Amino acid sequence: QVQLVESGGGLVEAGGSLRLSCAASGSILNINFMAWYRQPPGKQRELVAAINSGGSTNYANSVKGRFTISRDNAKNTVYLQMISLKPEDTAVYYCKAGVLKASWGQGTQVTVSS
């Protein structure tokens, strides 16, 4: 299992942008499923975006057209580019690697002010 460290969170005004990074301690080349989840205050964790080793992606309906997930296997890093941010995007964002024996990062806070 790899260890994951998220970064790039912060406070931004509505309509702004952020790019989150998820750096893995080892190679992600053979990890098919990489994803970003988020947990809004008082709510359950939810899938935001996922990418497989072939580059196929899927997104939650609430973020389609605004968020883009990508991976750089050479840098062992997964990114989440977020634009047109809304207050309802406020959450702790987590990176996940794998499915059955998944690794999770510690999370990074994203706060969008109205």
Provide key terms for this protein.
114 residues, mainly beta, four-stranded antiparallel sheet, seven-stranded mixed sheet, 11 strands, 50% strand
Structural write-up:
With 114 residues, the protein is mainly β. It is globular, with a radius of gyration of 13 Å. The termini are far apart. The model has no long low-confidence stretch (mean pLDDT 97).
Instruction: Give the overall shape.
Output: globular
The number of strands is: 11
Give the N-terminus to C-terminus distance in angstroms: 39 Å
- Proportion of strand residues: over 45%
List the total number of helices.
0
Structural class: mainly beta
Q: What letter string, H or E per element, gives the SSE order?
A: EEEEEEEEEEE
- The chain-level mean pLDDT equals 97
Radius of gyration: 13 Å
**Regions with pLDDT < 50 over 5+ consecutive residues?**
none
Oligomer: single chain
List the helices and strands and how they pair.
Elements: E1 4-7, E2 10-13, E3 18-24, E4 34-39, E5 46-51, E6 57-59, E7 67-72, E8 77-82, E9 91-97, E10 103-104, E11 108-113
Parallel strand pairs: 2-11
Antiparallel strand pairs: 1-3, 3-8, 4-5, 4-9, 5-6, 7-8, 9-10, 9-11
In short:
With about 110 residues, this protein is an all-beta fold. It is about 0% helix and about 50% strand.
